[in-house]
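sorry to bug you again but im stuck and you know this stuff better than me. below you get a single protein, a line of residues and a line of whole numbers that encode the local backbone shape. mainly i need to know what kind of three dimensional shape the backbone takes. anything you notice is useful, everything is just below:

***
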Amino acid sequence: MIETQLEYLQNDLNEVLTAFNLSDDVKVKHLLTKTENKLVNTIVINGKSYAYGNLIHDFGDEIVEKRLIKRFAKISLYKALSLNLNVSLPWGSLTGIRPTKLAYSLLEENGEFYDYFINTFKVSEEKTELTAKIIETQKGIYEKNPDNTDFFIFVPFCPSRCNYCSFISQDIKSAKMHIDEYIDALIKEINASSFLIRKLRSIYIGGGTPVALSDRQLEKILNAVDKINTGVEYTVEAGRPDRITKENLKILKDHNVTRICINPQSFNDKTLKAIGRFHTANDVIEKYEMAKNDFIVNMDLIAGLNNETFDDFAYSINKAIELDPDNVTIHTLSIKKGSYLAETTSRLSDNDVIKMVDYAHKRLTESGYNPYYLYRQKYMAGNLENTGYSKPDKECVYNVDVMEEISQNIANGSCAISKAVSDDFSRIERVASPKDVPTYLAKLDKIIIDKNNLFKNNR
């Protein structure tokens, strides 16, 4: 942990430290000196000092001042660590989830973002180009309209828990006693939330694994959604092939679902077994063949899974390209607290994972896929990112809206976070539901009231 005299900088500076994977014996201190128009950040690493000054023409109000102080403190810490350790990170000093959102903001302010990314934030040319390509692909999808509304529903149940997973999801067998009550509560919340929609852009049912529910339970949720669906993009995370059937695919189609996810994570059976999956790569292929003519299909793959070599990952990429789904999302393994992997394994070297992600980008773009959204997480191998690739005109509107935070997001269910965007996009306010199912059930009425107030106050 870094020492700093400014408590509000602690978390942001520690995120920079985490990206470098420092050993415990490295001691780092930060000191800020501020004059009327200048910031000086001094970083001390094991007794060696590095000082960086930044002229500021106008600090503006307190909010702007804090933002500038945070920005230059992080940049100074990154530069000092990079120089001291002789290490450069692909995203430089950026630690936020949404680098493309920052790029859009810089474009609005300055007409360009390249110089800021490369020379100020020290982002690599490769990641700056990736950001530019995503902005290009998003043309025709990106729509900054405060009336636009995306509607999210969370189903927190899975057939089993993968060992890399840190989501708040439950094994469906152990959660059996809560499922019907949860579905009834979810439907109540969906009905109460429907009046908050302005202009519906998309519907997304995520998890968990929604198709882990029985057909009867799944259809109850879909019946509630039918009342709000105006023919927009409609996604269900089918996810696990061991729970996809002809019957539940027909139910999804009958309820006008347009997109589904069938997520192998890997096409290597030894890996699937190691991560706690109860299906084979052939099961993925079989279910994909059943679904591909009726839905736009996304497949997720993870770079850096335990025990996988580069050749194993390359095989999965090549197999996905051979199958030719509409979307392929490449996740970089993020080992978080709460996952089984966090306690039981060490991850691959950063260089190995960087090689995997680079290979995925090269092969997918060569094969007609364009990167169209990305986001980052804490504790990602190689300080990398998750990137969604799409065939032309098959991009997921929901993913763009949520990652760029350019629409209202009405979120339903446990662990759901609703976001209300002000009409001038100057602020985003949030209401979060409890993470665990029993607390969600107990507090449902208050959740509905809080969410109604959130969106009514932002009209």
Notes: Residues 338-344 have pLDDT under 50 and may be disordered. The longest helix spans residues 62-85. The first strand starts at residue 3 and ends at 4. The chain is about 40% helix and 20% strand.
